[in-house]
Design a protein that fits this description.
293 residues, alpha/beta, 8-stranded mixed sheet, 11 helices
């Protein structure tokens, strides 16, 4: 793998704090995308007492060549105790904002929508002041399942675009760019109070023009929050990095996104879709929404 530039170096984490979070996760038999997807920010986030919970996993029914999560054609049945255990972890960690994501579960009729809802209900029952962000798969275009999720009223609905349309077949072969855009469009139409969010990774061979077009497409469906980060090759068997993007280009994309109306753009080499997600609480105070807005 190519040597990383200086701006991608991460400070060594304070393992005592990381260990405390890991202890809670192990005690409750929970997975996090921080660990399963080898996120470079695991030390910083665990030190801050935050984590992005990975439900219905850890194995995924898709094998995207950029992702470090394990592939399994027939994953295990859903665990009915998972929502309760997740809610217990949120309570123990005293989270103000929780991010809940999942592997793709194309084997399930509703893509896992009902499990997302059960997790929301369990967290709200145990920690009613905690705001909830969901990072969901595309549900294979099952918009009834999307409506079920949105009826549970998460504060933020995130679905990552990941890359530019030209690279979808290579990077996200079982995904569909237009389906992703449609999901984000429908989310705002179904629930006008939800804050929608999406993320893209760069360094896979896309052009600046293509990136700006994706940013415009996302804003065109009223997406509120955008994250842009550098793709990093997890292992030698995954897609290689085409280019390490300089921080100045991330700053330019951030400025462009803000200029065309995004409420928040987080753009830097180490940005990931849930990086500093708790800042959305500040955004909600600045741009409050009701069902009629």
């Amino acid at each position: 793998m190519t040597v990383k530039p200086d701006w991608l170096r991460v400070k060594a984490p304070q393992w005592q704090r990381v260990g405390n979070v890991k202890e809670i996760l192990r005690d409750l038999s929970l997975n996090t995308v921080c660990e399963e997807a080898s996120c470079p920010n695991i030390g910083e986030c665990f030190n801050a007492g935050t984590a992005t919970f990975l439900i219905m996993g850890p194995a995924c029914t898709r094998a995207c060549p950029y992702c470090d999560i394990d592939f399994e054609k027939k994953p295990q049945a859903l665990d009915p105790t998972e929502p309760t255990r997740l809610a217990e972890a949120v309570s123990r960690m005293r989270l103000n904002h929780v991010v809940i994501t999942s592997v793709n579960r194309d084997d399930l009729e509703d893509g896992g929508a009902s499990q997302f809802v059960r997790c929301i209900e369990a967290v709200r029952l145990r920690s009613p002041q905690t705001t909830i962000e969901l990072l969901i798969p595309d549900l294979c275009g099952n918009w009834k399942a999307l409506e079920i999720i949105l009826q549970a009223q998460p504060e933020v609905l995130n679905h990552n675009t990941e890359t530019v349309p030209r690279l979808y077949r290579r990077v996200r072969p079982q995904g569909d760019y237009e389906r992703t855009i449609e999901l984000l469009k429908l989310s705002r139409e179904i629930s006008t109070r939800v804050y929608t969010k999406s993320g893209i990774m760069v360094g896979l061979g896309e052009t600046d023009t293509e990136i700006r077009q994706v940013i415009e497409d996302l804003r065109g469906v009223n997406c509120d929050i955008l994250t842009i980060g550098q793709y990093l090759q997890p292992t030698a068997k995954h897609l290689g990095v085409n280019e390490f993007i300089h921080p100045d280009r991330f700053a330019a994309w951030k400025a462009f996104g803000e200029e065309i109306g995004f409420l928040q753009v987080v753009s830097s080499p180490l940005t990931r879709s849930s990086y500093h997600a708790e800042q959305v609480r500040e955004l909600m105070e600045l741009y409050p929404r009701t069902n009629g807005s």
